[in-house]
Amino acid sequence: MPALIVRPPLSPAHAGVEHGWALLADDGRTLLSHGSAPLALLPAGDEVTVLVPGAALSWHTVTLPQGNLGGAARLRSVLDGLLEERLLDEPEALHFALEPGAKPGATVWVAASQRIALRAAVQALEAAGRRVTRIVPEFAPQPDGAPALLFATGEPEAAQLTICDASGVATLPLNAAGLALVGSAPLDTAVASAEPAVAAMAEALLGQRLPIAQAPERWLQAARAPWDLAQFDLASSGRARAGKKFSALLQTLRHAPQWRAARWGAVALVLAQLIGLNAWAWKERSALDAKRGSINAMLTQTFPSVKLVVDAPVQMAREVAVLQQATGGVAALDLEPMLVALAASLPRGRVPNALDYSAGQLRLRGLNLSADELTGLSNTLAPRGYSARSEGDLLLVQAEATR
User: Fold this and answer.
1) 391 DSSP β-pair partners
2) CA 186 to CA 188: how far, in whole Å?
3) C-alpha to C-alpha distance for 312 and 309, rounded to whole angstroms
4) In what order do the strands lie in the sheet with 31-37?
5) CA proximity to 31, closest of 218, 169, 284, 276
6) Geometric angle at alpha carbon 382, from 377 and 387, rounded to 5°
């Protein structure tokens, strides 16, 4: 199902307020449609990304203390202490979010927003059946060494110029005074774009042609950034976060162009494995069938009277025993070989007081063998082709082939 980006309004969210939205294709890179609608009329989306408007965020740099910062509660207390003197509101009224990959001892960016308004927007979406997977800023500072981003947005009567660079995010009026505050240095290397309504004004002010980019295209770019403001009290459970990361990883592996070669390689590897396994199984099956056929042929050639082969080894043993009996030979299942094997295997001094032989089975009474003696007898008789087991006070001996 496509992904959905929702930009809630700055006013308190409720069912009738219009929310900006952009619907993305499964690859997460193609914009399908966009618009604004109340919560109940938003399009369906498998993943919902909340886009926090730029005017709802302030940006601050802090240097995290060295060492283990503990859990989320302790880290939040550390941020409250570091930012308390820089904020106009009380820290308890704000929601903080650290930049991706923040580590102890490093200088990092912290995004601050009104906690109640942001929580209300998320809760309104989830109450409407929209599962929020990420919260991203509309504008964010750029990494060191990256070119600045310049956006001309809004309507002609309230046009704004937003610049995002390594020093933070600044939003100024789109006029000569705002441009003077920006200075000329960032403009020389900035990647600029303008919304259609203010494109002519921005081009006249900057003195250059600007690419046209509608707001949903900027939202798509913001959603692809690594930022996630769902931290501290807005963070979901560890399992849910792992599920979100896993889902995002799957989407990247499935649709990202840089993974196309890997995807084709994985498909080729799976196909090669399937073909190889089937070829190996066919070869083993053919070899087994050939061996079975040679055994069956040996049986029917040796004993032409056998017309139907069911179990060649058993049938051959049976035919050999019949042939031995017919010619006066002694077979392993006869009484004499059994007595000879028993005489060589029984413990010294053990003589049965009764025996009974029937159909290849010899029953002996009165031996009174212990468990160890019975085990030793079985181990001695096994190489001779006989098995022995106890049934009450009887010892039952029989040839293996007659089982």
Assistant:
1) 394
2) 6
3) 6
4) 31-37, 19-24, 3-7, 48-52, 132-137
5) 218
6) 75
Band (pLDDT 50/70/90 cuts) for residue 330 is low
Residue found by looking up tokens 């005489």 in the block = 343
> In the predicted model, what is the mean pLDDT of residues 273-285?
91
**Number of C-beta neighbours around residue 1 at 10 A:** 8
Q: If DSSP states are collapsed to H, E and C, what string results for the chain?
A: CCEEEEECCCCCCCCCCCEEEEEECCCCCCEEEEEEECHHHCCCCCCEEEEECHHHCEEEEEECCCCCCCCHHHHHHHHHHHHHHHCCCCHHHEEEEECCCCCCCCEEEEEEEEHHHHHHHHHHHHHCCCCEEEEEECCCCCCCCCCCEEEEECCHHHCEEEEEECCEEEEEECCHHHHHHHCCHHHHHCEEEECHHHHHHHHHHHCCCCCECCHHHHHHHHHCCCCCCCCHHHCCCHHHHHHHHHHHHHHHHHHCHHHHHHHHHHHHHHHHHHHHHHHHHHHHHHHHHHHHHHHHHHHHHHCCCCCCCCCHHHHHHHHHHHHHHHCCCCCCCCHHHHHHHHHHHCCCCCCCCEEEEECCEEEEECCCCCHHHHHHHHHHHHHHCEEEEEECCEEEEEEHHHC
Sheet with 361-365, strands from edge to edge, namely 354-358, 361-365, 394-399, 386-391
Nearest to 352 by CA among 341, 361, 339: 339
Q: Which two tokens stand for residue 231?
A: 């931290």
The model's pTM is: 0.58
Q: In angstroms, rounded to a whole number, what is the distance separating the alpha carbons of residues 182 and 365?
A: 110
Give residues with Cβ within 8 angstroms of 380, minimum separation 6: 344, 345
Confidence (pLDDT) at 245: 59
